[in-house]
Amino acid sequence: MDGLPPVDVARAILARNKPKQYPVTVKIPDSQNYTQPYWLELPKDGSMYTVRNQELVGDPESPPAMTAEFRFSVAGTEITLQRPVEHRYVDRIYGERRRPLVIVPPVAIEFGGTALVFPNGQSRKIEFPVRANTGKVAGEVRLETPDGWKVDPLSQHFDLATEEQSTVAFTLTPPPGESQGSLRAVAKVGTREIASNTRVIDYPHIPAQTLFPESASKLVRTEVKSLAHNVGYIVGAGDEVPEALRQLGCEVTSLSAEDLAHGDLSKFDAIVTGVRAFNTRADLRANYQRLFKFTENGGTLIVQYNTPEFGPPGTVVPQTSTLAHIGPYPIKTGRDRVTVEEAPVSFPNPNIVLLHYPNEIKKSDFDGWVQERGLNFPSEWDKHYQSVLESHDPGEKQLFGGELYTRYGKGAYISTSYDWFRQLPAGVPGAYRLFANMLSAAKVQ
Length: 445
Description:
mainly beta; Immunoglobulin-like; Rossmann fold; 3 domains; seven-stranded mixed beta sheet; six-stranded mixed beta sheet; 7 helices; 27 strands; 10% helix
């Protein structure tokens, strides 16, 4: 750390195996940068990290925030040692542990990440915590919005004790018409402005890493209509789709094992299984017949992608009970995927209801997708199903199984392997319209 004066320590004679302690108080300069991995200091350039000091590239960690230099005189010989300033302690399970010195902002703003989508012109209340990082602190927090967006109030005051947090609230109103931009939360403490959260990644097998993700979210104002208002969600391996559906105005209920076995499913307009839910939840597999009965009675059932099982290298295990009942008619889950997010998408059955109601789906709804189109597309399916979308990587075979639709009794069933778990949190407008049409499928003919 630059700019710190040397600390004089009184001469002493060290006894064998007896440590000598010297308390030292050091004031951190106001200009000192916060401590984080060097490859995260600057925004990424597309998919590449931006590194200010190229000499650091390849190093597994950033240089220590502070280094102490010790000078010893032993029997007339001068010895100089340099050591990073860190906290060493003994854990009863893992033995000696080390935590590096970390320079953090005075507050952390726990906001950002998932896009905020406004499917209509209605205002929305935005709430998030502001947490004290270093001690008693007071200041103001505000939201920075794109042109045309309105926020009320303009700022909120906070006054926090050590490690205390307080929730602040703002009302955000979108402009008319289509709009996209970025919403940024900024706290002002004295002359310093902070626009980041503070997140610590701490596992026994790696050194603790402190990150400062920007307290910002994508803002999307786009017109989306949904006829489904009460949605049951069966969480699988974990995703952020439920929160995205709440942004459509849906009331989303996470379904437990008890709900699947004995709950009243008729109160839901639609039920959605999360990614790999059939792989991970035995209670879902045990109660598949209740889901099909829900569909038969007039509900919409949406099954997101699952993963086929593998045997010896190069072989696929025959579809066993794990994935044998993911649909009311046979579906065989495959391994095909579309990795190019810009791959063209076509409509094999252009008159199918999922492309027209309640939102008219266009080719432009597949613009701006992130990372990929989809994965683990079904390889075989019963003739009762209709293919809704077709997409494939350049030079590869056509894949018609990414979204399959069928009427079942009074309701509708949809198998979809397109990766909504990425597109919805990223705020892709077309993904919201497409998913809203799936949720509404049983209510339109």
